[in-house]
Each structure stands twice: as C-alpha cells, then as structure tokens.
TrEMBL record:
It comes from the Bacteria. Residues 52-98 are annotated as: Disordered. This is DNA polymerase III subunit chi. Residues 75-98 have a biased composition (Low complexity).
Length: 148
C-alpha cells in the first residue's frame, strides 16, 4: 500500500517536472508547435485521389459473347457517367500564426491547471514530510548540543 503511493508520487512528480519544462522560457518548445507535417509521407485521406485508374485489363481479342454467364442476358439500362469526385481544397501548408498562438496559450493554461491540481494534491504530503524531517533534524541537533 505504501509502495504504490511512492510510485504514484514519483509518477506525478515526473509529470510535474515535464509540465514545468513545457512552461519554461527556455528555447525548447513542445514538438506539437514546432514539427511540420510533410504531405508526401502521410497516409492519404478518404477524399484524396490515390494514383490513377489502371488501364483496362481485358485483351482486345476477346469476344464478350464467348464468356459464359450464370444469369440470362438482360438489357441493362444505360449507365450514367459518374463525375469524378472533386478534390477537397488543399490544407494550408503553413499554419496560421494566430491559431498557433491561440493553441499555445490554451496549452499553457491547461498545463497550469494540471500543475496547480498536482500541487494542491501533494502540498499536504510535502508539508508533512518537511515537518517530519525538520523535527528529526532538530532532535539530532539538540542531542548533539546536550552531548557537547
């Protein structure tokens, strides 16, 4: 029971440290804000056209009447030509600086809230530990002073 609290404390302290580094004014920024996405390496989306249609695979010398069918021949209604799907507008390659600043401020505000929650959760534990260590240190100093 005690070891799980220590492991949880260590994990939360690591989270707190990573949040502190994120909010620091040093040159390192979150990779979400500095990484760029290159269009060529991405998986195509559903509305993206992928490649071209393959050429007809039927050889020209095949007679369609020679191919056996399982259903009787029925006159089919004329097939309407489908229009090719329109390309979706390409996303901007460079994100809007105002949107990045807004996202940055939102991320920082969320990180501040998380950090404050962690501090609020651990402040009583930290205070108790500091008191315990100070009392132990004070007892050692008093014992050393009496022994001298």
């Amino acid at each position: 029971m005690d070891t799980s609290k220590k492991a949880e404390s260590a994990h939360l302290l690591d989270d707190l440290e990573s949040i502190r580094q994120l909010l620091g004014d040093d040159a390192t920024h979150s990779p979400l804000l500095t990484d760029t996405v290159h269009r060529e390496g991405q998986i195509p989306l559903l509305f993206d056209m992928v490649g071209t249609r393959p050429a007809s695979t039927h050889p020209e010398d095949v007679n369609e009447d020679d191919i056996p069918t399982l259903t009787p021949d029925v006159q089919a209604a004329p097939v309407e030509q489908l229009q090719p799907p329109q390309q979706a507008p390409q996303a901007q390659t460079q994100p809007n600086p105002d949107a990045l600043l807004h996202m940055d401020s939102e991320l920082r505000a969320a990180a501040q809230l998380i950090m404050q929650d962690v501090i609020d959760d651990f402040a009583p534990h930290i205070e108790t530990e500091i008191k315990r260590r100070l009392e132990a240190r004070m007892e050692r100093l008093i014992a050393a002073a009496k022994g001298s």
